[in-house]
Amino acid sequence: MEKEQTDMKRNNDKTKSRVMAGIYSWLLMGLIAFMGSTAWGQSDTVKRSNRKDPWAFKEIKTIPPVAPLTGGLWLKGDLHLHSRHSKESSNNPVAKILAFSRSVGVDYVCITDHDNHVDGDVANHTWADPEFRSADVLLLYGAEWTTTRGHGNVFSAKPYDHQRLYFVRDQRDHVIQSVVKELGIHLSANHPMGPKDHFGFSYDMIKSMEVWNSCVWSKNVNALLIWDDMLSSGRKITGRGGSDAHHGTPESPDKATPNSKQAAANYVGTPTTWVYATARTSQAVVDALTNGRVSVSANPYAPRVEFYADLDQDGKMDMMMGDNAKPGGKPVTFRVQLTGKTATDSSYTINVVKNGNAFGTYKTTGKEAVIEFTDTPTTAGRTYYRVTVEGPVTPYPEVPASMALSGNMVALSNPICFNFDPRF
């Protein structure tokens, strides 16, 4: 009896073992099948979307012809200045700014006082100042749009209703953008990498950005990263400079302030923005700033960098910085030249940036001050090239401390562009 019970128990145990083994085997096979399914992305029959990117690059049929390279004139100026109408400035009346500008050969200025200091009513403050007039220096109408999301400058050849822009400073970007368009003004981003006053709005609403703020070049390096991001994405935004000077030299020691020493380091023209204008008018300055025929130099006496391209290798330049053309699929010869007062016994380093990346570094002497290079822009997408120039410091006796702060940074150009959609 005991033997029969033992045999029966042994048979039951074997049966259970076989059943459990079958269950485990079934589970293992199911798990292997699951791991090999499309859910794990390892199957040879993975389903893929047939959707096409609606925003992928498409051939641009028409790009407006490049404007003539002759018949214009280079004008130099400062696009970011504060007078006594900005509360934190000192010893800097409008008359002093204009007199100094005239003395160093500056052609145009835009006095951009903070609009929040006057509730946006710059028309009855800076513009209404009896000193706001000049027979020698072109005056742009503008102000520093001062908001909790950052700062921007407005540039206009004629008076406009700045309070309308000031009143929408905290509205959504599309509201602000509509007001900018209605006013017909050029809105520019100021010091985009400022720690407290960076530009926190959409870059789609601006036409230019301050890539060189004040004489301190080192603090502008990161602004170039933002600029390259915008250019690489197809936004043809002009790069410009601005001293952001707030303080003038006191007439007597008793009128000095703790900030008075800044006037010897950062004042009108540190840096200087050059525009290739069609005429010596305020409107031509704004137009050149918009189309990008612009370069920036460390000060009014520093050499100006000019950047050109020969599209058909005939030895004649066909376009310049700020221009946009349709590539022909053939090599293009580019020319970089320094114009003005160069140090003939010194060398300059020209750094070429292509699509946000270093492309090449070239050396030239101040006596020759020109280099050429060749590259083939792609026909299946956008391409842009821009340059920076490093070299000896150009003396600026009127603002002597600025030279040490700008270091060996001499100048920068705006880009030459290919296949940029003019409708974007």
CATH class: Alpha Beta
Shape: globular
Oligomer: single chain
N/C terminus separation: 96 Å
Secondary-structure element order, N to C: HEHEEEEHHEEHEEHEEEEEEEEEHEE
Q: Biggest β-sheet, characterized? A: 11 strands, mixed
- Residue stretches low in confidence (pLDDT < 50, at least 5 long) are 1-8, 37-43
CATH topology: TIM Barrel
Overall pLDDT: 91
- Count structural domains: 1
How much of the sequence lies in strands comes to 25-35%
CATH architecture: Alpha-Beta Barrel
Give me the secondary-structure category. Answer: alpha+beta
> C-alpha Rg, in Å?
31 Å
* Helical amount: 10-25%
Number of separate strands: 20
Descriptive notes:
- The structure is a single chain.
- The protein is an alpha+beta fold and 424 residues long.
- The chain has one domain: TIM Barrel (Alpha-Beta Barrel).
- It contains 7 helices and 20 strands.
- Strands 1, 2, 3, 9, 10, 13, 15, 16, 18, 19 and 20 form an 11-stranded mixed sheet that branches. A 5-stranded mixed sheet has the order 4-5-6-7-8. A 4-stranded antiparallel sheet has the order 12-11-14-17, with no helix packed on it.
- The longest helix is centred in the N-terminal third of the chain and has 34 residues.
- The N terminus is likely disordered.
